[in-house]
Amino acid sequence: MKVVLKRVMFTLWLLIIFELGSLILLPGFAPRNYVNSVLQNSYINVVSGNFGSQITVPSLFALGMGPYMTALIIWQTIASISEKTTQRLSQKAVGTIQKLLTLIFAILQAVMTAFLFLKYKPDYFGYSEALFYLFILMILVAGAMLIVWMADLNAKFGIGGTSIFIIPGLIKSLPNVLNSGRTEPLHFSILGWLIVLLIVLAFVYISVFMNNSETRIEIQRININNRLTNSYIPIKVLVSGAMPFMFALSLFSIPSILFAQSNLETSFLTTLFSFHNWQGIFTYGVIIVILGYGFAFVNFQPSNIAKSLKKSGDYIMDVTPGITTEKYLTNKLFIMAFLGNVFMLAVALIPLIIGLFYGPATNFSFLFGSILILVTMLDGIFQEIKALLIKNQYQIF
């Protein structure tokens, strides 16, 4: 119990530092309500909230965990494709590569973010706009890398791993999700808000259930009586986690933001990247499905598991070790990923389809996506705490 409390306290201190950094405005920007300013007509608030950032607020930690999460996913994808090459690397080399990838994505994201911040008309302190832009860019990148350092510390000494810094921004963004992209806040009667509350509570329950649902493939162990063991390979229904929601909205929103900046509102591509027509909803669904299958194979790698089983001598009943086992696991993964994608499509698209006829329903898609992300992250923290408590209860005799 002492170990858990020590880790929790360490994480709380880091979260306090993170929140203080989020309140430190960049030089030249006066305190004001930035959330409903320049970017009020886009869904960028929801996108940034899913990564624990506040892109609409010009603060030290405006980029949040976005660069780190993007770099991590890219590296996991590379590792799954080039397994032999990455296995030869030391942990130090892997860490260095991940930090370099994070730095690259931090610079790329900071370039666009700093450009958006200039629309707030800051005080240039007598410097040229180009020099001031470069200065803001450097601070944003430094803030992002500082978050990465704190995330690594938390992974070693705290609770929640590197994703813990996404949770505060996600929670803070939830109350504003329903009003994102709207010129006026939603208004419901007391009965209407009660119905909304019941719908949200029901969705939380369903999300917890789906997050814990899994199929278990029984493993046969040589010279071990399986009645005395409970060995299996679990494949979750949400094998891709909530990653498709985290990245789908971001990928979907980027083109619409670029088109808005270039005034190409009547282009065919603009129609394909809008939440307010059938074409855009279909595009959004396709992105979710592609990411759903992609992250499923990143999180659960049949090839590696089949090789591990063959190396240890374990096997699946009536399935030949090696390539046959890999194909068997791949088929199972496809089935679970399909079920997970059906659930995510229902969560994401049903509110959007209803929104075509009743506008206020549209943002429930983003609310439910944010809740699902929060549920998966909190469940991971709960499982980590549970494992630490069980670990300290073991006794030899």
Q: Could you explain how this protein is built, in words?
A:
Helix 2 (44-50) packs antiparallel against helix 9 (243-262), helix 3 crosses helix 5 and helix 9 crosses helix 11. With 397 residues, the chain is an all-alpha fold. The protein has 14 helices and two strands.
Percentage of β-strand residues: under 5%
Total DSSP helices: 14
- Termini distance? 20 Å
Q: How much is the average pLDDT? A: 83
Considering DSSP H and I runs of 4 or more, what fraction of the residues is helical?
55-70%
Shape descriptor: globular
Radius of gyration of CA atoms, rounded to a whole number: 23 Å
Structural class label: mainly alpha
Main β-sheet, spatial strand arrangement: 1-2
Uncertain segments are 36-41
- The run of helices and strands is HHHHHHHHEEHHHHHH
Major beta sheet, specifics?
A: 2 strands, antiparallel
Keywords:
2 strands, two-stranded antiparallel sheet, globular, mainly alpha, 14 helices, 397 residues, 3% strand, 65% helix
Topology:
Elements: H1 2-23, H2 44-50, H3 66-81, H4 83-87, H5 91-117, H6 129-157, H7 166-177, H8 190-212, E1 214-218, E2 232-236, H9 243-262, H10 268-272, H11 278-299, H12 302-312, H13 323-355, H14 364-391
Antiparallel strand pairs: 1-2
Helix pairs in contact: 1-6, 2-7, 2-9, 3-5, 5-6, 7-14, 8-14, 9-11, 9-14, 11-13, 12-13, 13-14
